[in-house]
Amino acid sequence: MKIRDAQVIVTSPGRNFATLKVTTDDGVTGLGDATVNGRELAVASYLRDHVVPLLIGRDPHRIEDTWQFLYKGAYWRRGPVTMAAIAAVDVALWDIKGKVAGLPLYQLLGGASRDGVLAYCHASGKDMPELFDSVQRHLALGYRAVRIQSAVPGLGKIYGVGDGVASGRYEPAFRGPLPAEETWDSRAYLRHIPGVFEKVRERFGAELPLLHDAHHRLTPVEAARLGKDLEPYDLFWLEDVTPAEDQDALRLVRQHTTTPLAIGEVFNSIWDCERLIRARLIDYIRTSAVHAGGITHLRRIFGLAELYGVKSGSHGPTDVSPVTMAAAVHLDLAIPNFGIQEHMRHEPIVDEVFPHAYRFADGYLHPGEASGLGVSIDEELAARYPYERAYLPVNRLTDGTAFDW
Fold first, then answer.
1. What's the pTM?
2. Span 25-48, average pLDDT
3. What residue ranges define each of the domains in the chain, with the CATH number in brackets?
4. Measured on CA atoms in the order 201, 206, 207, 211, is the torsion positive or negative?
5. Which of 255, 225, 218, 268 is nearest to 240 (CA)?
6. 391 pairs with which residues across the strands?
7. 357-378, pLDDT tens digit by residue?
8. Rounded to an integer, what distance in angstroms lies between the CA atom of residue 207 and that of residue 224?
9. What average pLDDT is seen over the chain?
10. What is the sign of the dihedral through the CA atoms of 89, 90, 95 and 100?
11. Which of 156, 197, 260, 287 reaches 20 to 30 Å from 337, CA-CA?
12. Contact, 168 vs 138, CB < 8 A?
């Protein structure tokens, strides 16, 4: 068996996705997600112009060799574009291997370690009544864990609280020639958020697992204060409290709070995670298959994490396609140190473009029993939704200084 063709498909059914479709000489196909939100065309070009020519004629079963070939052979290693391109190839080859074996991917990864994958949803609101409505709506859908995001009085539009709150939708990428600009004030945020969690606990009780994302915006001292202030509300985790580049910041945070910490959605390799895991500075590692080199490399990260008592919590927003969500759920089901899976529901049109076997029920995801990933792409439908330029927002302090979004 040899790879006969590899095609890059860029489509925008509500938001942009970059997908790699690999075809063997006997007609078996595999899909990989290469989406980097706001930079989709960069990855599409990397694949078309540099990677696809290297794939033709290769044995699709040699997944590890292909991964090493693409990673070491480029010399310029890591980074989101390179690792997303490698991830797309890797996941597509795992998809092919599963189809040839006639088994769902999780069976090739060692079989199920659990009956289902606990998922958390996103609830948000511009005020407390709207937030309560959002939480209640998601609980009615069956979710057993909820991420809580709230507007901050006086700041206007901020991360995690979109215009689509009423429908439970949030898509931060703004379609247009320039990014949207948001305003930030850390002191106002730190004053406001503990009261939000106090009210949510009063309304929904002590048993509901609650999560929160600070989105890389706090200094180490501010993050330590927030973790300490949130201790009475027993969070499942506090996510991305400081900019991910400054890993020593987590050491100070860890020394001052027992609130569990999660980070890693912007990490691209095991080398980004290694120090945080070995020093036990985090409780959950948030890397995803699409941004960390595919299933092959993500297994290495989770394997290292297992040795140090760190659990998985893969990134799962709407800017990863159903291809990555399927890969995540297969891996989640198999690994011993699974923690929780982020699950933002795609718009119905996305599910039509990417029909899939994974399903959500009663708080849990399951990848299904279809061979391989269990995801396909309707290329004719995808072609009706061409790429539209879109950027993630940028953030400024109230005095105009550019800041972390």
1. 0.96
2. 98
3. 3-104 (3.30.390.10), 108-370 (3.20.20.120)
4. positive
5. 218
6. 174
7. 999 999 999 999 999 999 999 9
8. 24
9. 96
10. positive
11. 197
12. yes
Retrieve residue 358's tokens: 């994974």
142: left (phi over 0), alpha (psi -120 to 50) or beta: left
One-letter amino acid of 56: I
Q: How far apart, in whole angstroms, are the C-alpha atoms of residue 215 and residue 243? A: 8
Beta strands in 71-159 (DSSP E): 117-125, 146-150
* CA–CA gap between residue 370 and residue 95 (Å, rounded): 11
Binned at pLDDT 50, 70 and 90, residue 149 comes out as: very high
Q: What stretches of 56-104 show up as alpha helix (H) in DSSP?
A: 63-73, 80-101
Q: How many CB atoms lie within 10 A of CB 41?
A: 14
Residue keyed to tokens 């980074």? 79
> Torsions phi, psi of 375, nearest 5?
-130, 140
186-215 in b/e burial notation, b at 16+ Cβ within 10 A? beebbebbbebbeebbeebeeebbbbbbbb
| Predicted local distance difference test score (pLDDT) of residue 392 | 94
DSSP 111: -
List, by residue number, the catalytic residues: 159, 215
C-alpha 333/C-alpha 241 separation (Å) is 28
Q: Are 232 and 199 in contact (CB under 8 A)?
A: no
